[in-house]
Amino acid sequence: MTEKTRVTKEDILQGLREVGLSEGDVVLVHSSLSAFGHVEGGADTVIDALLETVGESGTVVVPTFDWGHAHKAERVTFDVRNTSCKKEMGIIPETFRLREEAKRSTHVCHSVAAIGPHTDAVIDEGKSSFGEGSTFHRLYDHDAWCLLLGVEFTSCTELHAVEEFMRVPYRYHRDYVGSTVILEDGTEVPSEALEFLRLEGYRNDFGKMREVLELHGVLRTTHIGDALVTNVRIRDIFDITREYMEEDIGFLLDEESRERLREEFPSS
Fold first, then answer.
1. pLDDT tens-digit series, residues 200-212
2. By CB neighbour count within 10 A (0-12 exposed, 13-18 middle, 19+ buried), where does 185 fall?
3. What is the CA radius of gyration of the chain?
């Protein structure tokens, strides 16, 4: 058996600096702990390095989605404190959201957690997944980074924000009427969440975005242990992708889905 690459906190700090993350930044982090190799101290080491890099004036945000369970259910109960995201998002977001200083948003399937002084400014009110007023919209306004730690653009959910902005015909809105959110203090409130769901038979191809964004010169990359690390401004992701979608509304779909789109929505 090949021994895993050992990664220290200092390795992570150096890598984060190499991709341009610095004090005062706001950053949304998509992550895979196993991609690094063996991280001494595990998920907490990665989180500590992120918080140290942005400092007391910066803010770290992680997705804490429970989408896989919630999107198929007619009614959902989302417990802000107790609904785990580990199965869907991994150990780093799960460890992060459980920190005492973390605050989690209330969207029943697309919640996020944040630590830092910009937390209240970037956390949404639990309504839109990716549209106006959502965390992803607010991160754009704050010129936040999107940091990919050992994951590819297939994990870059910010691309859904472009789909929602463009009102793509292969998605539709659904609400969660009758669903419940249990707040941190145990209070139960009705969910106001909306989701922009994909129609059956359509599949995204977000993986293509690495090459596209590389061509535009907006990616900063390095390796930490075995993990490829990529940092890019959310504004660049959104604005560049929007340009492509204005020419081809099915740009973020795979080829089979794009052909289906042309057949079912010929005027799009």
1. 999 999 999 999 9
2. exposed
3. 18
